[in-house]
Structure formats: structure tokens, C-alpha cells
């Protein structure tokens, strides 16, 4: 005889109508929320909502970081909405870097497919974990922790990342500090940098005094 709690659970699952849908394709015409995008009407969904061809194209690394990220998140691939996954391509030119940043809504697995990358993260106890990765190597960045990637060796690096959210979010520390209108005296206080260095970095990243 089956245990009573199991029978109750079984009956509940049989008698209760299912609210699960096969998918919830993002309606990009409506605002997003912390829960994601609203669902498109199923009658308007097409195969294009589930296909993205951009990951086969190298990103433009002609910038101060010499790096580019090509995302395949809900805005690019609406079929990801509600599925808890997404992907991205990372291109880093020689001498390039993806500076300290975090994804508030997702953990990440990064797999190197070309070149070498020094990659690592900093735990909430300020322990540092990093290693030089080569073709075929993978690294995990836990959700919400600061992490980085630096090109290494004589070849441009290419890697693919997968995320545990259709919209991982992104905050780059250097931009958060120096690419905004936070007054320089306050930046100096919270970073312990001197006035000249703060103003130099604000100029580099486009912030204002």
C-alpha cells in the first residue's frame, strides 16, 4: 500500500489542472520585469523566436577593453524567456581584457575554444581563484561574484559562456565607478584613490566630475 502523503500528492497532481506551458516566448514590445518578459500569444510565435545566428560572428574588439561580448539572451533569442538559460560569445584581442564584473542574476560556465585566457573570480570572503585556460578548458563563475578574463599568449581568444538565466545582468566595476556622474570627492572616499587618479579614470571611461 502506498503511503498516505504520497497518495495525497498523486491525487493532487491528477485532479489539479496543469498551469504549465511549453514555452513563454518573450514579447519584446512590452516592458520587462524582474520575472522576465511577458509571453507572446502562441498564435504569433514562429521558429525565428527560437533561433539566433549571431554566435558564429566575431565581435568587434576595437574598443578600450579590446574585447567583445555577443549575447544570446532573451532580447536576442526570445524563446529563452522563462527557461533559465542563455549563452554568449566572448572575443578578446591580443592584449585585451574583460575587467572585473558580475552577473547578479546568473552563474556562468565559460569554455575556451581558441587561444588562452587567464580567468578567475573573487569570493565573498575575498579569496581569489584563477587559472590560465586553454582550448577546451572550462571555468565556473558562481552567481553574483566578481570575475574577469584576460587574453594570454599569441592568439586572440574566443570562448563561449552559458548562464543560468535568460537575462544574467551585468555590472562592470570600472564603469560603475568611473563612467557616471558620482562626484569625484565621493569616488575618492570610497576607493581611496587620489583626486588626479580619479579624474584620469573618469576621463578614460567617460564619467563627469
Can you tell me the number of structural domains?
2
> Quick check: average pLDDT?
91
Total of helices = 4
The total of beta strands comes to: 10
Kindly provide the radius of gyration, computed on alpha-carbon positions and rounded to a whole number of angstroms: 22 Å
Could you state the order of secondary-structure elements as H and E? HEEEEEEEEEEHHH
> What is the terminal separation in angstroms?
74 Å
CATH architecture of the largest domain: Sandwich
**Regions with pLDDT < 50 over 5+ consecutive residues?**
5-18
Quote the CATH topology of the largest domain. Jelly Rolls
Q: Largest beta sheet: what is the strand line-up?
A: 1-2-9-4-7
Q: In CATH, what is the class of the largest domain?
A: Mainly Beta
Biggest sheet character: 5 strands, antiparallel
Topology:
Blueprint: H1 4-15, E1 67-72, E2 86-92, E3 97-102, E4 108-114, E5 116-122, E6 128-133, E7 138-141, E8 146-152, E9 157-163, E10 171-172, H2 173-178, H3 184-191, H4 195-205
Antiparallel strand pairs: 1-2, 2-9, 3-8, 3-10, 4-7, 4-9, 5-6, 5-8
Helix pairs in contact: 3-4
Relevant terms:
alpha+beta, Jelly Rolls, 2 domains, five-stranded antiparallel sheet, 4 helices, Germin-like protein, signal, secreted, manganese ion binding
Tell me about this structure.
The protein contains four helices and ten strands; from the N terminus they run αββββββββββααα. It folds into two domains: 47-168, Jelly Rolls, CATH 2.60.120.10; 176-205, no CATH class. Helix 3 (184-191) crosses helix 4. It is an alpha+beta fold and 209 residues long. Disulfide bonds join 24-39. Residues 1-20 form the signal peptide. Belongs to the germin family.
Amino acid at each position: 500500500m502506498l503511503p498516505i502523503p504520497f497518495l495525497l500528492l498523486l491525487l493532487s497532481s491528477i485532479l489539479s489542472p496543469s498551469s504549465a506551458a511549453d514555452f513563454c516566448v518573450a514579447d519584446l514590445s512590452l516592458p520587462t520585469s524582474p520575472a522576465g518578459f511577458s509571453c507572446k500569444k502562441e498564435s504569433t510565435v514562429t521558429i525565428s523566436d527560437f533561433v539566433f545566428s549571431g554566435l558564429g560572428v566575431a565581435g568587434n574588439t576595437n574598443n578600450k577593453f579590446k574585447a567583445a561580448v555577443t549575447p544570446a539572451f532573451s532580447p536576442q533569442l526570445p524563446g529563452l524567456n522563462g527557461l533559465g538559460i542563455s549563452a554568449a560569445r566572448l572575443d578578446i584581442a591580443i592584449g585585451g581584457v574583460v575587467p572585473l564584473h558580475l552577473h547578479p542574476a546568473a552563474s556562468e560556465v565559460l569554455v575556451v575554444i581558441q587561444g588562452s585566457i587567464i580567468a578567475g573570480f573573487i569570493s565573498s570572503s575575498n579569496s581569489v581563484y584563477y587559472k590560465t585556460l586553454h582550448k577546451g578548458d572550462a571555468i565556473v563563475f558562481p552567481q553574483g561574484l566578481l570575475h574577469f578574463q584576460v587574453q594570454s599568449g599569441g592568439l586572440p581568444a574566443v570562448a563561449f559562456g552559458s548562464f543560468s538565466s535568460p537575462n544574467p545582468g551585468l555590472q562592470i566595476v570600472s564603469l560603475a565607478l568611473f563612467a557616471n556622474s558620482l562626484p569625484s570627492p565621493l569616488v575618492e572616499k570610497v576607493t581611496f584613490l587620489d583626486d588626479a587618479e580619479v579624474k584620469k579614470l573618469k576621463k578614460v571611461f567617460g564619467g563627469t566630475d
